[in-house]
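Supplementary material to the annual report.
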Amino acid sequence: MGPLSREAWAQRLAAFRTSPSAFMAGPEGEDLGRDLLSDLRSEKLSEQTKVSLLVLSLEYPVQLWPDAPAAEVAATSLLDTLVLLPPRLSALRRLLLLAATTALVAGGALGPTSGASCRLLPLLLGLASGSDLGPGFGPTSEQRSLQATACECLRELESCKPGLLGGALGVLRGLLGQAGPVQPLSLLLALALRNTLVVQSQAGAGLRGLLMAGASPTRGGSWDWSLVEEGDAHLQPQAPSWPAAEEGERGLAALEPSPEEARELRAAVAQLLDTTYLLTPVAQAQLLWLLGWALRGLQGQPPALFKPQLVRLLGTAQLTLLHAVLALKAAFGEALFTAQDEALLLRRLTLAAQHPALPLPTHLFYLHCLLSFPENWPLGLEGEEAAPLLLRPQLCHGLLPSLLHDPMALLARLHLLCLLCAEDEEEEEKGLVQSPRGSLEELMAGLQQRAALDQGPRALATLCFQASYLVARCLAGQPMVLTPLIHGLAQLYRARPVLAPHFVDLLDQVGPELGEPLRVLLRQEVVSRPGRDEALRWHLQMLAKVADGSAQSATLSFLQAAAAHCTGWDLQQALLRVCRALLQAGGGDGLADLLQALARQLEDPDGRDHARLYYILLAHLAGPKLGVALAPSLTAPALASSLVAENQGFAAALMVQEAPAPIRLSVGSREIKGPLPVLQLQVEALEPIYSLELRFRVEGQIYAPLESVHMPCLCPGRPARRLLLPLQPRRPAPAQLDVHALYTTPSGLTCHAHLPPLTVNFSDLFLPFPHPPEGAGPGFFEELWHSCLPEGAESRVWCPLGPQGLKPLVSHHLEPFVVVAQPPTSYCVAIRLPPNSRLLLRLEAAQQDGVPVALRTDDWAVLPLAGDYLRGLSAAV
Amino acid sequence: MAQRAVWLISHEPRTALCGTVRFSRRYPTVEKRARVFNGASYVSIPEDGPFLKALLFELRLLDNDKDFVESRDSCSRINKTSIYRLPIGGEELWPVVAFLKSGMIYACVPLVEQTLSPRPPLISISGISQGFELLFGIQDFLYSGQKNDTELSTKLSQLPDLLLQACPFGTILDANLQNSLDNIHFASVTQPQKQPAWKAGTYKGKPQVFISITEKVKSMQYDKQDIADTWQVVGTVTCKCDLEGIMPNVTISLSLPTNGSPLQDVLVHPCVTSLDSAILTSSSIDAMDDSAFSGPYKFPFTPPLESFNLCYYTSQVPVPPILGFYQVKEEETQLRITINLKLHESVKNNFEFCEAHIPFYNRGPITHLEYKVSFGQLEVFKEKSFLVWIIGQKFPKSMEINLSGTVTFGAMNHEKQPFDPICIGGTAYLKLHFRILDYTLTGCYADQHSVQVFASGKPKISAHRKLISSDYYIWNSKAPAPVTYG
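Predicted assembly:
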């Protein structure tokens, strides 16, 4: 495809700029970077169009060439284009240098293995040195501008790869001394010097004579990368943040320059400082930040070098310069600023914060600086805004807030005023026209008056509440300030109930010192004026926030009166939200009546349902549980919508929660009583639980469904409780019981736990026959024995005996069922197996290690179970 | 110290978006560093569309503020500086330096060379003041001498090229964009080595020095026992030095007459090479005493090519030039107003113009007016509920003039009579507008003979002075009025 026309490019660039991401996702996105590079060499495009292409590449290299290989290719192509330019004056040369630098850095391709980097760096250094690179690099008239540009490019590369120019320090210093544009060289040298100091101190190495003129970064024809730390992790802040500066100090302290090196360094810094007045103010500031942080904590480098600059800097109106002085103050503290100097700086700052010739954003920034002033001997906590010790109230007279100020200025000055009031409590300042507290009260009253204006913009109300919040936060412990503020706010609500959302927000944000009394006043304010006015919805919103258990009768009568006017769905919901708040606070008799009335009276069915639900909750749930039922769930993340939040609260409280087993359940010894087999269970609590309900399910439905067992409460540490579980077998067979527990925790939540299954053994089902009269036993047994056949089954089983012999075995396991006993040789045993089976055993002629057992049953299915049972008996002893 | 991006947005109320991005510039190499420095707390620079929306919302410049919106209106979201955090796509972009001036929003995002959580204090971020300076520079360039929208458009179209000069990689080289513009033009000239970076070339031509002292006087007068009236003079000394040579040295001395009011709070241009400590410490913060330094105030400097503000000062003159009272009494359906103005005898009674503007806020249009003036004439703007008392060039011999009358108002219409948050109830003011040429209230003057120039050729020196009013309010003494301090 041939080069695009000027118009086509203009269109394409405009489309790209509208939304770069959308353009790159589109069909043309992929080719843009490639087309741009190739069209830069097209002879058909005007220089102006090419400039616009390069400007685009300066801004969006990552979109055009997203990875390192692409960036490398792009930079190479840009450098090739540069070489191919005709020798006349061209706007492209400078841009190509900027573009190649940007592409390499932004694409992450800068490094010793990158061919483009290895071409670009010597080229830039050559240009910066003012060496004659031949006619290909433009006419002499362009050299000066290219020299500056090359310095800028090198500075950017050094910023992104600290140490890159460590080897060039000597060259740069030499250049600064002779010819060359002062500003670009100064900034470049300062940055390279600073980075080298940091890199070398981290490596534990000295300056190694790097500052000596003549040292060149190109050793044997290739660039010296030895000082460049690998990876981005070593990127150096050019102006580290202040608290973190301690680390920097430790880092640089490791560097102990030799006396000779220290002298060289001092000379270089002095050389840089001497020519600062030739730099633009912003560049001067950059230089001071760099040098200040370079020399901080470095041995043998007294900060007095900066002193000659300070008076000049303190006098200027320039934001960057005063800021740089503050940076020096933070870096050197007492070493550079005596107490008197500190006082002077503070005064200059105070006056700059209010000087009528400076714009508002500057004032505000200086005010911030004042409250974060780097004091020589700070008293407060690091990072917390506070008025500096030397800033006496007299100095701040001009910084007091007034209603005429812009909102931001007002808040900033108000903050200062609050800090002064906080100090004022300790020592009453004399000689002031007005005490800080007086000014504060007056201001707050004015703000409240303005916020109370009908039709006033919301910003005025917001400002009033922000100011109230600020005062409440700074002066929480001062009732002298808070009381008038609270009354003023209550008055404001009376004048403009439409501000209810602001009040709710304020109550959410402030501490109890302001919040509690304000709550009470606002509640009184609302309930004292029942009515049907437009403000009703605001009153209800307010009341939902401030209603609690106290003075409920007034609240209820207000709600009763309001209910008649709540015609729409939203008003009814607002009304119900108040009821809900009262419910949460514990309810009360009057509330039940009101809810009942609402459940009948409200027009909207949704409202009626809600009222009924609340009524049911109130009637059925005890206080703590009610609170939990209505409170927002703690486990679920809070969602923005109140509907969802409300629903979640319910869901948590009213739905059953899964929980681990709160009790341990075991089968105890048997006790035979009554017409049914009864399982005796032992219940042991692991945590306090209430209203326990145990549910049992028999696997395979071989018993009739089991009744649930209820227990009112269980506490750990108490003796285990006995539980009797009657079984109704449908077949005489052992079974597994599946057990579930449903219970309430002390916090009111209903929980469900699945317990380990319980086993019902075959022998647990055994029941005795009614005892025959004395002497009739043998006959009774024989009758039973014969009745089993022919439907039933007969078998013989060898029942092994333990060392104790037969008698203990029988007495331990079969005692209740023995009908005829001739100890120690023979026993006749008759067992009833519900629902209606029998098992008869004859144990006769016991031998050394066992006894033969003849058994008969009328249910053949019992035989294998009986066999297993008998064979297992000896082991079970 | 670098900037990650810069924007210029025109604020257009009552349009769909309420604004348009007029210019934006991103710095990808700085962004690369931001990604490393900020680490996990890094938030990328958004595209123009989302940025515009978020910024306008944060600055409360979207038209819709009818409902309470917590993210904007919550009492705990307090901004005390022009530095904002913008919620964009679930993240918060910080710090965004932004301010609105004459319908244009200037914004930039400085690089913070550390992690952003916890947020470092603003004072520790060098890029903040650099960002401000860049934005002020753009603002000065756009509005210096600009008179209409076409000129603004022309200047806006020059911005991309200018920033390429003044801020090629996001680190500002010169906040004076006019200088950068000159630099482009001077680029072909071979410059000598010690050329200051803030001076694009050298002047060739007749040597001359212009010095202009402009004093603005502001005042708040209450005519009340318990509130003190305040007034203050703010002076600006502007210079233009057309002198040959690379670094001509100039010293300008400002002098005061014997009874003149000392200059205080002096702020100087960075080209001033040294400053007497007496000037540096003379401040309005301190209580005045007789020993106050009263000049001459010497300012040695090396001038830039363009016109510049050599210094600013303030001063406390003993009396306000015009003392007045304003009384407004509410009488059933009308207001009865009484105004008295008195020119102080020491003030030069020769105005370029002098007017008293008397607005009536939060009321309907004027339906009826009866008045009597002792001097000058009254213009009535009924629809705007606004009176202008044109006093003219001179006060009468008595130096005292007055106006009295009754005003009746119709029903208020919010469209036509705008809301004012200050003038509630009886609170009302009148504002004086006047200008006196060849006069300063402090008496400060630049003596032509005291101007020393160390350059080839004897320059022609011309000095001008003027006094103008600025925020000169006289409040209704019969109602509460907002108090200012200082």
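Chain A touches chain B through 136 residues (CB under 8 Å).
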